[in-house]
Amino acid sequence: MLNFLSRRLAPALSSSGTTHSATLSNADSGLLAANPDSLIADPSPLHRLIASVPPQTLQTYTLTHLDSLPSSDPATLTVLSNFFATLVPPPRLHCVRCHKGFFQVENTDRSCLVPHDDESAEVERVGASRGKGLGTEYETLWGCCGKTVGGDGDMGPPDGWCYEGKHTVCMVSLFQNVQRN
């Protein structure tokens, strides 16, 4: 992967007239000898490529190739370590609703999915059926979300999730949401 960093070449003149040095593997130096202009000076194509790759794919790719680096390649490890030295991961937050960890940058309208609480179901008699032999009508109130379902609890919980939305770290917004339902 990053073998191009494994062997230091003699300093070369850049287009601005300053000297710089590059590190290349034997295979890469052969390509460079055939085309001495193959040193990349414009970061735009690399920027576009990185911007087009989903974050999880980029992370998996980087870790896979990092794990495949030989430990005898300190030049590559030094360059990569210096490149990532100022990278600070975002804080991992805790959702007070579903109790999962999350990163705010990945918090979407379907990140937090909370199932209905079977223990919160209360069956209530709502009246007698009109007609012969139909019996009494019941309704089940799900205290977790305030939704109701016909029947005496045998119909199961309401369709969908008790809560479906963004994660939250704030107990106040959790209680405000419960009061609205």
Distance between the termini: 54 Å
Helix/strand-derived category reads: alpha+beta
- The helix fraction, in percent, is 25-40%
Sketch the major β-sheet.
Answer: 3 strands, antiparallel
The pLDDT mean sits at 77
The helix tally amounts to 5
| C-alpha Rg (nearest Å) | 30 Å
- In one word, what is the shape? rod-shaped
- The tally of domains stands at 2
- Contiguous low-pLDDT stretches (5 residues minimum) are 1-24, 26-32
Summary of the model, kept short:
With 181 residues, this protein is an alpha+beta fold.
Explain this structure to me?
The longest helix is centred in the middle third of the chain and has 13 residues, at 55-67. With 181 residues, the protein is of the alpha+beta class. The protein has helices at residues 26-34, 44-52, 55-67, 74-84, 171-180, and strands at residues 12-13, 19-20, 93-94, 101-102, 112-114, 121-128, 136-142, 147-150, 163-165. The chain has five helices and nine strands, in the order E-E-H-H-H-H-E-E-E-E-E-E-E-H. A hairpin with a 5-residue loop joins strand 1 and strand 2.
Tell me the layout of helices and strands.
Blueprint: E1 12-13, E2 19-20, H1 26-34, H2 44-52, H3 55-67, H4 74-84, E3 93-94, E4 101-102, E5 112-114, E6 121-128, E7 136-142, E8 147-150, E9 163-165, H5 171-180
Antiparallel strand pairs: 1-2, 3-4, 5-9, 6-7, 7-8
What key phrases describe this protein's structure?
alpha+beta; 3-stranded antiparallel sheet; rod-shaped; 181 residues; 2 domains; two-stranded antiparallel sheet; 29% helix
